[in-house]
Amino acid sequence: MWKFIRLSLVFCLILFGLGGVSGQANADVQEQVQFQRDDFTLDIPDLFISGIETTGEITCHDQEKLAATNHIVSVVVNGKRQELYFENGKANFPLVFDRNEPLSIKAGEFTYVRNVKPMPLWLSIIPPLIVILLALVFKEVVSSLIIGIVSGACITGFYASDGSIWNGLFRFIDTYVVQAMSDSGHISVMIFSTLIGGIVAVISKNGGMQAVVDKLSRKATNARNGQMATYLMGIAIFFDDYANTLVVGNTMRPLTDKLRISREKLSYIVDSTAAPVAAIALITTWIGAELGYIQGALDTINAKAGVAYPHGIDESAYAIFLGSLEYAYYPIFTLAFILMLILMNRDFGPMHKAESKARLEGNVGKGMMHSNIDVSEFEPEKDIKYRMINAILPISVVVLGTVVGLLVTGWDAAIWSEPANSFGKKLSLTIGQSDSYKALLWSSMGGLIVAIAMTAFQKIQTFPETIETSISGFKTMVSALVILILAWSLASITSDMHTADYLAGLASGTVVEWAVPAITFVIAAVVAFSTGSSWGTMAIVYPLMLPLSWELSMQGGVEASVALGHFLNVTSCVLAGSVLGDHCSPISDTTILSSLATHCNHIEHVRTQMPYALTVGGVSIVFTLIGAYFELPWILDFPLGIFVLFLIVRFFGKHVPDPSGSG
After folding, report:
1. Which of 364, 481, 576, 614 gets the most CB atoms within 10 Å of its CB?
2. Transmembrane region positions (predicted)?
3. What secondary structure, in 3-state letters, does 507-535 show?
4. Using one digit for the tens of pLDDT, what is the confidence trace for 536-553?
5. pTM for the complete prediction?
């Protein structure tokens, strides 16, 4: 026995000695390799934000020397030695600055020194704050966006490595606007919007839109029925908020104008059915992004299980999403609230004023982005027979073509061959990983081709005339596209300045676990309002709040089942808060698209929609707190919340006069 132990000890000593010799040999090799000044180049960010970690990249151009050191090089960053592993000749290292100080990097004979002046994080709120305040005060969004973006560009320019406000000023056009227009997703939205404009122009000229309006007018004989038709169509096109907004807004506008429904009310119904439905439906273009964010948070939590806290979460991202629907207060309350406003024929705040003016005076409002368009260009041709098929078929191509495109671009045989997946899950996963931009482009292009072909073959217009009509439709989108580009530019600069990190940091601190869902809802709403992006907000807030929720529950000794309920609630609140902030923000792309599709003045749309969104948001926060504290089941929570909204509409809403007789 002792002999065996002695042999084992000798064997271990030999291995340890060999390892020591190998390590010493590797160190000796690194000391023998002399890296020269020209062996390295650096890629260092121009802008540093105080307290925000960023990444520097160093590239070694001498592959032989790297191979001699096993691709590990000792680099001194601000006096601290780091052993960096180079892959494909490149290595990354973290950089954080809290105050003005020099940045020094040394590797062999290579030396880099630069003074760093980090930008205070609180300055990141300035650009979106300027835009929102100017837009709401002066009711003009283009100049507000430009001033906000320029202010951000000047701030980042001042704190950048060159320290020049003027260089920052020029970044407005040569960096942020160019970035907004060069993003493939943004270009897809611009083309899709433009093609929808062309389709609307053609089906207006060929009498198809007028035939639809005439048909619906027989059913929707009053304002209430017209709003209900818009509401139902908004729910029916649930798979994508962009397609929903543009198709429903453009299709229903002629009918709602005829029924004296204000453009503001039409915009509200269109905007507030699009995102809530797309956010909670099981088969949408949102599902892939949502599952990706949730899975990332689950990976973070489970990596700490057994170390930072005793339990992880043994659920799939899809199961978490389904479970979170029990807490989807804002989207569901919003859909119920719109329905009550329509059925009870009541409104309050600025919306009531807009609706009363439309009913009594016939002044439905006008769009700020269409005042330069001659509406007569889109009146039907004279002496033609109005056919509904001329509008229904092209629009059906857009709607059904989008669904088919989502299935084609997201198809994965592995998903459909997995027996554990239900049909609904297979369909959701397929659409979740689809390329929604391709689907929208294919379907809108197909819809325009069908509209042009039908118009030309019926000899309503010649082929060249249909092309001219299409181009006229394209032109109606130009002003709105300018606003979209500027909104995307602002989102880019708020990302560079880490505005979301600042807003999230304001809410950090010690909180009880049952209050985390409501706090998350507020954080997500504020971030979405300030950045104008619900998707961007989800990408930021999900990784921040989901791990925090679970960790607080574990540290508080909460049972795993209760902790999971809080976690599901937080998951839903990120999504709900993102949609609420998006509804209230004048710089949101979906809010802008709603104004575009309905030809509504954009600021009036925001001004009239915000009281409704905040009302539903306030009720949602209250029931989020009540549900989390008392652990109420959803079957009780939702009816109570809807009843509270009913009381608000009943006692605060005012009857809208309607000469057409809707009550």
Report:
1. 576
2. 119-138, 145-166, 186-203, 268-289, 327-344, 391-416, 436-457, 477-494, 514-544, 612-630, 636-653
3. CCCCCCHHHHHHHHHHHHHHHHHHHCCHH
4. 777 767 877 788 788 777
5. 0.67
